[in-house]
Hints:
- The protein is mainly alpha-helical.
- The protein has one helix spanning 4-106.
- The longest helix has 103 residues, at 4-106.
- The mean pLDDT is 90.
Amino acid sequence: xxxxxxxxxxxxxxxxxxxxxxxxxxxxxxxxxxxxxxxxxxxxxxxxxxxxxxxxxxxxxxxxxxxxxxxxxxxxxxxxxxxxxxxxxxxxxxxxxxxxxxxxxxx
Length: 107
């Protein structure tokens, strides 16, 4: 029995040493993975913030374009109304010119 005790003690020490080494290695690897994941999440957050900023810029630009289109639509409607009034006046002037030409021809 005395010969088995030193072997068992040596095996226990070997097991403890292996457990300590494995635990230390696993801790080191988990720390490295955690650091890498944190870095990746930080990079994703930066990208998402950039996309959010660009999205807000696009929304603002679209609002400005829509406002301009509304203004241009109103301007176009005013121009059409003005053109219609001008056509009516030109038609009235044509009628008056014909009347004058008819009276002059009759005289």
